[in-house]
Amino acid sequence: MARVRRGHGVAEFLAARRAAADAGLRAAAHLILGLPGEGRAEILRGAELLAGLGLEGVKFHDLQLPRGSGLAAEYPAGELTLIHPARLPGLLADCLELLPPGCEVMRLCSDLGASERLAPRRPAGKERLYRAVEAELAARGTRQGSRFRPKGPFRI
After folding, report:
1. Number of domains composing the chain
2. In percent, how much of the chain has pLDDT > 70?
3. Spatial separation of the C-alpha atoms in residues 115 and 132, rounded to whole Å
């Protein structure tokens, strides 16, 4: 948590989700793919966590490094690697299969402008990425929710 300076961890996120649910508020969450130390297993655990929270929507973000950020300082030294854009369609398809079918997918990638971004130098283009994810799901014969397993009533 401190390394990426998000200001909160999973426990705080879950407490906020519970408070929103108790207040009857609709909620969406953001899932950043490729945080430091995170591999495929951790990404899928994050998607499974979100899948069980009764969210109305999810926004996916590939980790991008804004110029001048703390993580951007680690990148030139080789202390941080980013997900290669060619891996994103498969990872996103994995995540989508885990989400409930009715959960709105509001975004599949980050939107940081080239002048603000240190890396990746050439991120996956949105339209190309969307088509690649659709093609990946079609090739698998799956769709959003294919691997979703309800765990009973919404609980945190």
Report:
1. 1
2. 92
3. 26
